[in-house]
Amino acid sequence: MPAPIRLRELIRTIRTARTQAEEREMIQKECAAIRSSFREEDNTYRCRNVAKLLYMHMLGYPAHFGQLECLKLIASQKFTDKRIGYLGAMLLLDERQDVHLLMTNCIKNDLNHSTQYVQGLALCTLGCMGSSEMCRDLAGEVEKLLKTSNSYLRKKAALCAVHVIRKVPELMEMFLPATKNLLNEKNHGVLHTSVVLLTEMCERSPDMLAHFRKNEKLVPQLVRILKNLIMSGYSPEHDVSGISDPFLQVRILRLLRILGRNDDDSSEAMNDILAQVATNTETSKNVGNAILYETVLTIMDIKSESGLRVLAINILGRFLLNNDKNIRYVALTSLLKTVQTDHNAVQRHRSTIVDCLKDLDVSIKRRAMELSFALVNGNNVRGMMKELLYFLDSCEPEFKADCASGIFLAAEKYAPSKRWHIDTIMRVLTTAGSYVRDDAVPNLIQLITNSVEMHAYTVQRLYKAILGDYSQQPLVQVASWCIGEYGDLLVSGQCEEEEPIQVTEDEVLDILESVLISNMSASVTRGYALTAIMKLSTRFTCTVNRIKKVVSIYGSSIDVELQQRAVEYNALFKKYDHMRPALLERMPVMEKVTTNGPTEIVQTNGETETAVLETKPPHSGLQPGSQANDLLDLLGGNDITPVIPTAPTSKPASAGGELLDLLGDLNLTGSPVSAPAPQISQPPFLLDGLSSQPLFNDIAAGIPSITAYNKNGLKIDFSFERSNTNPSVTVITIQASNSTELDMTDFVFQAAVPKVELLRATTVMGRGPAASTS
Amino acid sequence: MIKFFLMVNKQGQTRLSRYYEHIEIHKRTMLEAEVIKNCLSRSKDQCSFVEYKDFKLVYRQYAALFVVVGINETENEMAVYELIHNFVEVLDKYFSRVSELDVSFLLSESHLYISFWCIFQLIMELIAVNHTLEFTFDGNR
């Protein structure tokens, strides 16, 4: 058998391959040769073969059959064999293969070898791919090597220890005594790896962290080392572009960060050195900037004094003005982290940040966008919004969704006026209409209903917006809804804010019909349009016949949803014409629903609520499914204000009946359904309320208190009030009174709320209702 | 933490790869192709840090070779950027004006470098450019 070719030959051959198929062929041939060579147990060339195998593995071809060969190489006595063997082990083996355990003995022997290079190889390999069993077995050896005076070995042992700790955290204490003098070394390699080891220990275990802070006086030692690094002159061994061992400096700064976090004493000890590093480091090269970056991160994280923080933010500001993209990116990232805590300081750099929005680089744009949203507040909202809307216009599609949601959130929190708010949302819908989230539509609708005086203006603007182009679904949905609601205002030309336009009823119906017919409209949008047309039958006077015709056409539509709506509307025209005006009345003002979570969640939960309610149609025979969306939106909205249903339980208690009556009268918010012993399943009270009464929320701020349970001498009263400080919180006080002669003991209060709610129970006064007391 | 260390040329051929996390072998090739596509599509004056999936890429171009390091968010990006440069400088010194071919032909040596540098995702030490290396090469080349 001819000697196997060398790795170089193989590489040369592969390079001559012109196609992927040729390359694969060559590799397969070579693999076959290697396999037969392995089978022959050829010691002399094994090393070469494994090297080739590693190359092929790097290119992406399977190489698992070489694993055992690597083991054989490791066991050999020649250094070159061992070297390739260990390399192969690091690349091909990991703890998933069973073979790796066979290495344990080899590594153990090699850790005690006379040559430091072999020991080094063994440490490297253990540190790369040691499994937890291997680590457990060999931890003792590693610890021994950590204490040697040979710096070559010591640094490798330190990193190996890091790996051992990661795999088997319980062994951390074993390495503690060895760390005592690690920082006294002169050799930078050892220093570096020791710092890494200490960092790992501190991160993993808070006990270790406390120990290092107090007993070991780690901070002063680190400060001393750092000072030496900065002060020492040029040292050719550790110099990188004029700065002495920047990697070590960065590592030390990171460890200082961990030590100083939430600890005043340590933070104080490092204030000086941080200031020194921040001012003395040269910023002309990237290296200096890297160190400054780490320093800034450290200053922000520890309990530093305010002067130092200002210094840090100024450094970041300087970074922002730098021409180098990398530095700007890094500055934006850090500012994002600090904007929560040092809001005012970051505001000073707002204009620069906003300029970064116009940068060409995608990474920078993303960071700038996130930071801009964090910086919006009541004062600068108009200016910022203008910039952000411009950004939305011109940015890449991947940003549009996030940007749109961000703008909505910010507008909601800080809108200076309703008109501005509506304008902003409309602008977003027209520019990025297809990227907005689904819940933007109900949000906007609610906003519009709430701003009563803007109805005419809104509907006029929306009408104009869809006249030209009705392809953006969310915009069309909102517009159809509004036209349906406020069509009469549109036709009568009552707008005060803007120049009123002259629109006839037919024109309005034209546009709605074209939405219905258009291929671009989604099914949901068509539903909106049909409902809008229906509503206009009460608002318009001369075109009722036309509306009837349209509605009857869609009674045979293929789309089931449209068909159902149309059929029900038809029925409304024919049989229930007397009810039509009442049913299609103008929507009442929806109370602004706030919960403890962000508003989006409210509305989507409202939607899911509506889905649930929609499945209970039998109660609402008269209820045309048409208004379902909108009415149930309303209900969904109402439902969210604090309700305390109990967890659904096995038996409906006798008190259930009373409660249902109660709730039928009460008509929604704050309808509590809890009782201590018998738990009651949540009744479908909403629908009871629906069929009997119009759904209005004349919900004044005060909610009448109710008697939840009054039986067998136990009376439970609920009284409600909205907290003055936080209107989204309702305080419910429960009073239980016992009118019998006996003591009631074991009074247990349980309450359950749906996920949107947050329930906080304060202490109970009084142990249990004693006789005839409350 | 460093997730991987790649040297890929402009045509997408991997000259050196070192993974510090277990990734299936066919996924590796896909990852490399995507990464290089990402880096190639960027222009010269754009940021060297790219956000890719749930980690960051720090890349640097040397002639026709891209050195790409994948890191997670605990790492200082600029320090890694310097590390890349340092690594290339060392290779340059060792191989006397290194070129892409040197890297691929002397693969095992390059690999061992990285092993000694970054054991398991951590930068071990700065091997100064002027300092002779402790590692002696002998035997079969």
Automatic annotation (TrEMBL), chain A:
- Gene that this polypeptide is encoded by: AP1G1
The name this protein goes by in its record:
AP-1 complex subunit gamma
Cellular component (GO) terms are: AP-1 adaptor complex
The beginning of the lineage is: Eukaryota, Metazoa, Chordata, Craniata, Vertebrata
Domain annotation GAE: ranges: 701-774
Q: What membrane topology does the UniProt entry give?
A: Peripheral membrane protein
Q: Which GO terms describe its biological process?
A: intracellular protein transport; vesicle-mediated transport
Which species does the entry assign this protein to?
Answer: Meleagris gallopavo
Q: What is its main location?
A: membrane
Q: Entry's SMART domains?
A: Alpha_adaptinC2
* Compartments where found: Cytoplasmic vesicle membrane; Endomembrane system; Golgi apparatus
Q: InterPro entries under this entry?
A: Adaptor_Complx_Large_Subunit, AP1_complex_gsu, ARM-like, ARM-type_fold, Clathrin/coatomer_adapt-like_N, Clathrin_a/b/g-adaptin_app_Ig, Clathrin_app_Ig-like_sf, GAE_dom
Q: Does the keyword Transmembrane apply?
A: no
Q: Which PROSITE patterns match?
A: GAE
Q: Which Pfam families does the UniProt record give?
A: Adaptin_N (PF01602), Alpha_adaptinC2 (PF02883)
Identify its protein family: Belongs to the adaptor complexes large subunit family.
Keywords, A to Z, come to: Cytoplasmic vesicle, Golgi apparatus, Membrane, Protein transport, Transport
UniProtKB/TrEMBL annotation, chain B:
Q: Name one GO cellular component term.
A: cytoplasm
What keywords would UniProt list here? Answer: Membrane, Protein transport, Transport
Give the InterPro entries listed for this entry.
Answer: AP_complex_ssu, AP_mu_sigma_su, Longin-like_dom_sf
- Please state the protein's primary subcellular location: membrane
Give TM segment ranges.
Answer: none
Q: Does this entry carry the keyword Transport?
A: yes
Q: Which Gene3D superfamilies match?
A: 3.30.450.60
Q: How does it sit in the membrane?
A: Peripheral membrane protein
All copies of the AP complex mu/sigma subunit domain together span 1-110
Its localization reads: Endomembrane system
What does the record list as GO biological process?
protein transport
Which is an annotated Pfam family here? Clat_adaptor_s
- UniProt subunit comment: Adaptor protein complex 4 (AP-4) is a heterotetramer composed of two large adaptins (epsilon-type subunit AP4E1 and beta-type subunit AP4B1), a medium adaptin (mu-type subunit AP4M1) and a small adaptin (sigma-type AP4S1).
Which family does the UniProt entry place this protein in? Answer: Belongs to the adaptor complexes small subunit family.
What is the annotated role of this protein in its UniProt record? Component of the adaptor protein complex 4 (AP-4). Adaptor protein complexes are vesicle coat components involved both in vesicle formation and cargo selection. They control the vesicular transport of proteins in different trafficking pathways. AP-4 forms a non clathrin-associated coat on vesicles departing the trans-Golgi network (TGN) and may be involved in the targeting of proteins from the trans-Golgi network (TGN) to the endosomal-lysosomal system.
**Protein's recorded name:** AP-4 complex subunit sigma-1
Query: Gene symbol?
Result: AP4S1
